[in-house]
């Protein structure tokens, strides 16, 4: 870990902090040292443990082990109120203000200044709010209602509240995600002024250009562990990306080569206002296309629009050359699409129904005879697919709610394979399942591709994308920023494109230049 001068006591120090939620370990060894008068970036892939670490500092979670020190003194917060009382403030991406109250009332909620007869001294309160905004160099009317304020102004109000409480440590969690360029610059000016006052700031962001423009130091986390701390002025972005990724994906996800055929899915200019824009992609028979990007980039929304769950404003979707009507999952199914959603418990399964009823769910209409559907017919339709996917259940009448996450995922996949689709869209195929079952799901995807099914796979796990995909399409802030053949889809290239770093402009052009049809099947699948 980077050293600080011996005579400077860190405002915040975490040493080997651990946190688990049942069998899931969110933090194995979280460490962070933030000096007063500095802005310290905290970066890492999705699931690296950043949010858990922040919530421990904020008093939302209690750590299971390790040390937490503020100004050199050990602390153990049991609540957010206790954390705030010790001078910690967290500025979230979307603050939660009381919309019917004024800006000033939101700042001084629960601690209004009192005048004569112990009545609220509103004049003093408005004057103090005005002084806070002047100190921050921003122009906000202290008397206006919070309702209708921009996200940027709401964040400034939260910062003003923190300063009024004399917060010494401010944590900004993805604060720029919903801001315009001008609003980002204003926020950065405020952050620098707080740093110059001697306060310590932690800045969490996926945008490397912002990290390097604003922060003095950057700490990298990976898989719930501290990896490294570097001075931003002395560290190239490629070094940070390499530290974030740090895995040999070829060993984790061996892939079976499959011949790649003609286009099955063709998406052109798909646009949904405020969600994604001008999305074009192709998935071919026998091809696994990985849709990569950070959480919130718009990947799942694109998939839902392609399948007809959500409507879109412009563009077209074609399957095997034929247009698929927008906004109609039934039309998508009839065309030959299948969709395994991210939330299998609430969107993919009837959790209180049997395995056979779930597996036969989409094809149930075709199983009825004279308007009647029997359990025998459901079992007959479900049994081959349950066996094929090795669903570990003693009987087809077992309820899905009693099964493991891995077996639930297999049931959802079996349900859709029963429709004999031409295209399988699968969102987060292995989230929440154990390593052994992950391998089984990966083998299944390779087998399906080998049978000529086109697969569009969305995953937040970069090793999974790189290990399984013939081609990687990267989405950042609702736009495709790179289209990379397997041979060019390195962890660094994908991560740079996902963070929309300026260096990705060349990578996106380079990756999109060769049309997928020019990539030899053996090369793409190797």
Please explain how this structure is put together.
It is a single chain. Helices cover 35% and strands 23% of the residues. By secondary structure, it is an alpha/beta fold. The chain has 2 domains: 12-97 and 149-245, 3-Layer(aba) Sandwich (Rossmann fold); 249-525, P-loop containing nucleotide triphosphate hydrolases (Rossmann fold, 3-Layer(aba) Sandwich), CATH 3.40.50. The strands form 4 sheets. Strands 6-7-8-3-9-10 form a 6-stranded mixed β-sheet, sandwiched between helices. Strand 14 (314-319) and strand 15 (322-323) form a beta hairpin. Helix 4 packs across helix 5. It is elongated, with a radius of gyration of 26 Å. 47% of the residues are buried.
State the CATH class of the largest domain.
Alpha Beta
Record field, number of beta strands: 20
N-to-C terminal Cα separation, in Å?
38 Å
Radius of gyration: 26 Å
- The coarse silhouette is elongated
The CATH fourth-level homologous superfamily of the largest domain: P-loop containing nucleotide triphosphate hydrolases
| Number of domains as seen in the coordinates | 2
* Strands in their spatial order, largest beta sheet: 6-7-8-3-9-10
> Which structural category fits the helices and strands?
alpha/beta
Spans of 5+ residues with little confidence (pLDDT < 50)? 363-368, 503-526
CATH topology of the largest domain: Rossmann fold
Give the proportion of residues in helices.
25-40%
Strand content: 15-25%
Tally the helices: what do you get?
A: 21
- Largest sheet properties: 6 strands, mixed
Average pLDDT reading:
81
What would CATH call the architecture of the largest domain?
3-Layer(aba) Sandwich
């Amino acid at each position: 870990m980077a050293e600080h001068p011996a005579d400077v006591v860190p405002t915040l120090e975490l040493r080997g902090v651990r946190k688990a939620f049942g069998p899931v370990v969110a933090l194995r060894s979280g460490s962070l040292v933030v000096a007063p008068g500095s802005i310290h970036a905290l970066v890492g892939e999705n699931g690296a443990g950043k949010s858990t670490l922040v919530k421990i500092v904020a008093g939302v979670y209690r750590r299971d082990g390790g040390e937490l020190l503020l100004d050199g003194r050990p602390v153990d917060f049991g609540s957010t109120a206790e954390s705030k009382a010790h001078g910690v403030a967290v500025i979230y991406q979307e603050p939660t203000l009381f919309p019917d109250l004024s800006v000033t009332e939101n700042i001084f909620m629960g601690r209004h200044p009192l005048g004569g007869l112990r009545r609220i001294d509103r004049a003093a309160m408005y004057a103090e709010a005005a002084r806070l905004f002047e100190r921050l160099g921003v122009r906000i009317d202290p008397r206006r209602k919070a309702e209708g304020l921009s996200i940027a102004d709401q964040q400034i109000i939260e910062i003003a509240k923190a300063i009024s409480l004399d917060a010494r440590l401010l944590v900004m969690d993805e604060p720029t995600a919903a801001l315009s360029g001008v609003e980002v610059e204003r926020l950065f000016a405020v952050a620098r002024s707080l740093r110059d006052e001697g306060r310590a700031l932690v800045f969490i962001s996926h945008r490397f250009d912002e990290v390097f423009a604003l922060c003095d130091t950057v700490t990298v986390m990976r898989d719930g562990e501290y990896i490294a701390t570097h001075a931003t002025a002395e560290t190239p972005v490629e070094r940070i990306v390499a530290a974030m990724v740090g895995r040999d994906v070829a060993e984790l996800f061996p892939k079976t080569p499959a011949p790649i055929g003609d286009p099955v899915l063709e998406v052109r200019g798909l646009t949904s206002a405020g969600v994604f824009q001008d999305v074009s992609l192709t998935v071919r028979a026998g091809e696994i296309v990985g849709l990569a990007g950070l959480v919130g980039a718009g990947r799942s929304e694109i998939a839902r629009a392609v399948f007809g769950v959500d409507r879109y404003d412009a563009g077209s979707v074609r399957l095997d050359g034929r247009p698929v009507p927008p906004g109609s999952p039934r039309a998508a199914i009839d065309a030959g699409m299948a969709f395994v959603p991210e939330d299998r418990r609430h969107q993919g399964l009837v959790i209180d129904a049997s395995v056979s009823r779930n597996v036969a769910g989409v094809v149930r209409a075709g199983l009825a005879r004279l308007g009647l559907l029997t359990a025998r017919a459901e079992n007959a339709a479900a049994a081959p697919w349950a066996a094929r996917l090795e669903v570990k259940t003693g009987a087809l009448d077992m309820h899905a709610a009693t099964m493991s996450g891995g077996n639930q995922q297999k049931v959802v996949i079996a349900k859709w394979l029963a429709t004999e689709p031409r295209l399988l869209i699968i969102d987060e195929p292995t989230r929440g399942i154990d390593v052994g079952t992950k391998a089984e799901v990966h083998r299944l995807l390779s087998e399906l591709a080998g049978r000529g099914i086109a697969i569009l796979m969305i995953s937040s796990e970069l090793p999974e994308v790189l290990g399984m995909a013939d081609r990687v399409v990267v989405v950042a802030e609702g736009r495709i920023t790179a289209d990379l053949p397997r041979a060019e889809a390195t962890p660094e290239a994908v991560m740079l494109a996902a963070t929309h770093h300026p260096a990705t402009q060349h990578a996106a052009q380079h990756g999109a230049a060769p049309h997928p049809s020019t990539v030899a099947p053996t090369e793409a699948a190797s």
